[in-house]
Input
Amino acid sequence: MFGFLNINLSPEVKGVVTQNGEVVVGAEVKRTLIYNDKIYTATTVSQADGRFSFPAQDVNSVMKLLPAELVVTQKITINVGDKDYLAWETVKRDDNDGLVSKLAQLKCELSNESQAYEDERSVIVGICRW
Amino acid sequence: MSLLSPADAAYAADRIYNLKDSSNLALFGTRLSDKFDISSSTRFEGVSGGLFVIKSHTGFGLIAKGKGIHQGEVLIATRGTASFSDGLTDADIGLQLSSTGKTVHAGFNKTFNSFLPELRQYFNQSNFNPTRVHCVGHSLGGALATMVADWLNHRNVAQTSLYTFGSPRVGNKAFAQRLTTDMGNKNIFRVCHKTDIVTMVPMWPFTHVPVPGTECFVNSPGLFPGGEYHRMGRYVESVTGKKWQDLKQVQPQLSFDDKVERWLSSSSPLQFTMHTSYLIQQALMFVLKKILYAIGVSFQAVVSAGMTMIDQMAMVLQKGYAASKEIAGHVSSLLDRILRFLGSAVKVAKDLTLGFIKWVLNLLAQSMYRLAKGTIQLVHAGI
Output
């Protein structure tokens, strides 16, 4: 019903936190989504196997009908001890299947250097790989 | 000294959106890194929004110094509408005097003025005399780029080139003619898709640059102007691999055959089918868009917290109904079509109330929900 007003801010996110190859239990993972000047946050902690997940986040808005660019800033940070790691930061600009498949299998190795991955449709910055 | 290629200009116009809410310059991407110093560029924030809404500070653009083949030059990229408050800038139609004393769109002028101090500061640096400034932007960002180019010309800062994608009209005819004379038609690249609705607003007396001159017209598919071919991603696709000469061709006659409008105003009987339900949704979308494009005030009502989707749509329809006779006609026919579709004998009254509109939309929502459920059952039964 009125699916033409639906905007997906983030697909389901699944990932695993490791440090030097060992799973990290109890890492605080935070997902921040910014769309239309509103901020949507969710937090979780990594489980015994280092895994964490976030459900998909959708909103309904008549913004969808305006000739406005879709700009959704997605940021995932991981806090372990007193250290914050930028796991993932990108800007979703359209229904980008590439982001969906990457976010479904994030490998967050804390010793990784932050990298900037770029393709035609997006730039992704952070320590996560996929 | 060289011009930006269509692909490079489109890249900058596209990637500047990525800095809307983040100050992480890495999100801009690296494809222009050998041509401009993005890593140390200045990100400037603008204020958008009407008089009575919350102002929001978000990244509106960046300024980067050139290197390599663009040594001594500067790139300025400005972004377009990506949130309700930006939308208000677009819709804030009215004329104002710009900082250079010309007659321009009030909303664009306000947003431009909000980051003008940062522009001044940047170009006032001592021992800084760029040879050329490239101004790039999409949509509202194209309008802002046009205003930046006008300001640079007025101050005689450097030779300026302007590259816009899906830009609305910025100022009156005198503004457009003056800017074209100052910059030269050969330095202005206005890329527009045939079916990009934004390039058709605001209407007269607003005039596009260059005038006289040639735009970069892209014959996008479809008959109806809409939002799809306004998307920057579509412009990136359209100009990739092209040269400016290829793009500067004569604009064909626009054919605008408004089927949805015709369907709305006809009174043929309706059957309760998925096809009609699709047409009803298209018509609903058509009328909502028409209103949202035409009047900005409704955005304020729409963003109120705690409103359901039906409330939002009803509010927009009611605002549109009250705003103009033409739109009022569309809203009445739409509700009339919906009621016929639902088989209701209720007639649309002369003075539409918000309550009535909500009632009709709720009725529609319930029926379509039932219809959708029924269809799923049919599919599962293999029919």
Notes: Chain A touches chain B at residues 1-2, 4-5, 34-37, 60, 62-63, 65-71, 73, 75, 89-91, 93-94, 116, 118, 120-121, 123, 125 (CB under 8 Å). Helices of chain A lie at 97-103.
